[in-house]
Amino acid sequence: MSRAPVDVLLRRLDPDVPVPAYGHPGDAGTDLVTTEAAELGPGERAVLPTGIAVALPDGYAAFVHPRSGLAARCGVALVNAPGTVDAGYRGEIKVIVVNLDPRESVRFERFDRIAQLVVQQVEKVRFHEVAELPGSARAGGGFGSTGGHAAMDGPAGGHEYASVASDREGQ
Ligand SMILES: O=c1ccn([C@H]2C[C@H](O)[C@@H](COP(=O)(O)OP(=O)(O)OP(=O)(O)O)O2)c(=O)[nH]1
Ligand SMILES: [Mg+2]
């Protein structure tokens, strides 16, 4: 059984901007549009306005995620993915897009969908400083400790480019 939706107050800063809505039942994110047209050359970035502001309930945050279609088709990413919208933030939600395509420009028209907003519950923590942390199976292992990429193993790996080969070999 699905839980009841969480009520979020929303202000439209542009009278014509659509209220974000889920595309399908079960979707995690609601699409965000840009209210300004923009053209980004290869490697260029821009902070685009979405025309909406929200008041999230305490204990929640919203995360600005990329759209996979834009990423796959045009090489558009979010510089700070995922962007974090704090519960206390009342300003306009903005999206920091970057065109990662090395050759092609990308153009956004007003009301093009540029990102998606995922609202989640977030925990508040209290930090307790200690001299030693409890042990664990992973301990300090990370950054490829379970089977690194050839490029991370240095010249002895035989490649000067990033490769996923050594991960594949482990399968
Ligand atoms: O993609 C994003 C990320 C952030 N924000 C807004 C909401 C968020 O609550 C506020 C601050 O974001 P963040 O804490 O990531 O930025 P900061 O550089 O640490 O700014 P600040 O010093 O204001 O916290 O900016 C957006 O509109 N879009
Ligand atoms: Mg901050």
Automatic annotation (TrEMBL):
Pfam families: dUTPase (PF00692). Residues 138-147 have a biased composition (Gly residues). Residues 17-147 form the dUTPase-like domain. Substrate binds at R67, S68, G69, N80, T84, V85, D86. CDD domains: trimeric_dUTPase (cd07557). Its cofactor is Mg(2+). Keywords: Hydrolase, Magnesium, Metal-binding, Nucleotide metabolism. The keyword Metal-binding applies. GO terms for molecular function: dUTP diphosphatase activity. The keyword Metal-binding applies. Pathway: Pyrimidine metabolism; dUMP biosynthesis; dUMP from dCTP (dUTP route): step 2/2. Gene3D superfamilies: 2.70.40.10. InterPro entries: dUTPase, dUTPase-like, dUTPase-like_sf, dUTPase_trimeric. Belongs to the dUTPase family. NCBIfam families: dut, PRK00601.1. This enzyme is involved in nucleotide metabolism: it produces dUMP, the immediate precursor of thymidine nucleotides and it decreases the intracellular concentration of dUTP so that uracil cannot be incorporated into DNA. This is Deoxyuridine 5'-triphosphate nucleotidohydrolase.
